[in-house]
Specification:
This protein has three helices and two strands. With 180 residues, the protein is mainly alpha-helical. Strands 1-2 form a two-stranded antiparallel sheet.
Length: 180
């Protein structure tokens, strides 16, 4: 019992509502130009049609906003955090700079120069490291960093408070935001 029906492969069953087989051309009809490829070229797989169309490109939106008030508490927190970071950078940079200058032998050269100017009559030779040792320089830079933290935080909060007072009189700063 031989039939000419093709045997369906698993997973190739037609979907509900879809045609079982694509319509076939009559045997004498010419092939469309896309089907007339050389035998050596592999057929390109067709991309599935896009079900979702891209949204049309909209014009850039613009919004004009007014900064009418700045919260002093948020300014205090942010200014404190940034000034502490700046203080740490100051201390580390001071220590690194002192170490580089010491490695270059600058302190010894300054000592020799001052001792040459001073002469033999002065008695005790001058020693710059007794005034500017690493511990003393680090301590001084830490004190400067702590004072900067207090001053920068205080000035930032004071600036926010003054801005709030002046914005009630003038209206604030206008800002225009755009969509790209």
């Amino acid at each position: 019992m031989s039939t000419n029906k093709p045997i369906p492969r698993p997973g190739s069953a037609p979907k509900v509502g879809a045609p079982a087989r694509p319509p076939q051309r009559p045997s004498g009809a010419p092939k469309p130009p896309s089907a007339q490829r050389p035998a050596s070229a592999a057929p390109r797989p067709k991309a599935p049609p896009s079900l979702v169309k891209p949204a049309p490109k909209a014009k850039a939106r613009r919004a004009r906003l007014l900064i009418s008030k700045i919260d002093p508490w948020s300014v205090l927190k942010m200014a404190f955090l940034l000034s502490v970071a700046l203080g740490i950078i100051t201390v580390v940079a001071t220590i690194v700079l002192w170490s580089v200058l010491d490695a270059m032998g600058l302190f010894d050269k300054v000592n020799q120069f001052i001792n040459e100017i001073q002469g033999q009559e002065a008695g005790t030779p001058f020693d710059l490291l007794s005034f500017a040792s690493l511990g003393q320089v680090a301590s001084f830079s830490t004190i400067v960093a702590v004072v900067n933290v207090v001053l920068l935080t205080t000035l930032s909060v004071l600036s926010a408070w003054l801005y709030n007072i002046s914005s009630t009189l003038v209206g604030g700063i206008g800002v225009t935001l755009t969509d790209d």
